[in-house]
Amino acid sequence: MELIISIIAVIISFVTFLYTVLVEYRGEQREKKQSTLEALNLLQEQVFDKLNEYTFAEIKDISDKWNESAEEKRKFVTAKKGTATEFWNTHHEYDNTINEYRVLSGYLARIEHFSLGVNTGIYDVKVTERAATSYLTMLYKKLEPLILTKNNSNNSSYENKYHKEFCKLVTALTKLEA
After folding, report:
1. Is residue 172 assigned to a domain?
2. What is the pTM of this model?
3. Could you tell me which of 32, 44, 31, 25 has the C-alpha nearest to residue 121?
């Protein structure tokens, strides 16, 4: 009889353990989903709403002007007319471009951080897919000129891969939606 009671106690303990693990897992999954929604809401306020003020053409124009200013600076320094700092101090026609480029780069960095969170499992990919696939895909296309500018801005032998997490996220979301 004691053996049967011991076996029943072990079974009850095991079932209780499994139930506890299941409840804990579901709680963590719920927290992950909630964190994803909170992060998306924060991105909406801090980034998406502000990026909506820019058109595709404006972002492309800023990227093109940035490339032009970088090339002019390179020529200025190469011709030994002065340093890069002296170039920026004397060529104020690029000030607006520089400011806009930096603002857009900051927005892009925040999107990249969120994308890294989704890609590493900190945030929930399915919630992101349900909440923002088409918007993030459109946003990637909209920011593509800026991303290409950043990837090609360094004239070195290294292959620049900036914002690859954003690209990876958009690719994964597109596959999930298909």
Report:
1. yes
2. 0.80
3. 32
Q: Does residue 171 form part of some domain?
A: yes
pLDDT digits (tens, 9 = 90+) for 96-112: 888 999 999 999 999 99
User: What is the C-alpha separation between 69 and 9, in angstroms, rounded?
Assistant: 76
Distance of CA 75 to the CA centre of its chain: 33
CB proximity list for 9: less than 8 A, separation 6 or greater: none
Predicted local confidence at residue 156, as pLDDT: 47
**For 125-165, what is each residue's pLDDT tens digit?**
999 999 988 899 999 999 999 999 888 765 544 555 778 89
Residue 79 lies inside a defined structural domain of this protein: yes
- The count of structural domains within the chain is 1
* In contact, 134 and 59? CB cutoff 8 Å: no
Sign of CA dihedral 85, 89, 90, 91: positive
**Segments forming the whole domain that contains residue 108:** 32-177
